[in-house]
Amino acid sequence: MEEEAANPFDSIESAQQFVELLAEAVEDARGEVETQTAEAAGPELERRKQALQLVAYHLGKLATCLAASRRILNDLRSLRRLLLEERPLERTETAD
């Protein structure tokens, strides 16, 4: 029997690592686009500048989605820990 290749998303932690790496790549790309946009001066480069601004806009949307994905993955990890009793339920005691 052939063994299946390990799925990089077989755990919440591995998905979190992937999202983190993707978020870093998006931030790097945003920096490069900002630099290129600043360099695109002059009327002959106006169309290029507009295209770069559109790229920056979409990278910003992607960064927002990745931030939300990080929060969701953190919530899922916490819920898994509670459900599998990997972490005890924290109880707050009130003083009488």
Give the count of structural domains. 1
The low-confidence runs, each spanning 5 or more residues with pLDDT under 50, are: 1-5
The ordered H/E elements are: HH
Shape: elongated
What is the count of helical runs?
A: 2
* N-end to C-end Cα span: 64 Å
Q: The biggest beta sheet, please? A: none
Please state the structural category: mainly alpha
Mean pLDDT: 87
Report helical residue fraction: 55-70%
Radius of gyration: 21 Å
| DSSP E strands, number | 0
Strand content: under 5%
Describe this structure in words.
- By secondary structure, the chain is mostly helical.
- It has one domain (13-83).
- Helices cover 69% and strands 0% of the residues.
- It contains two helices and no strands.
- It has helices at residues 12-39, 46-83.
- Helix 1 runs antiparallel to helix 2 (46-83).
- The model is unreliable at 1-5 (pLDDT under 50).
Tell me the layout of helices and strands:
Layout lengths: L11 H28 L6 H38 L13
Helix pairs in contact: 1-2
Characteristic terms for this protein:
96 residues; mainly alpha; disordered N terminus
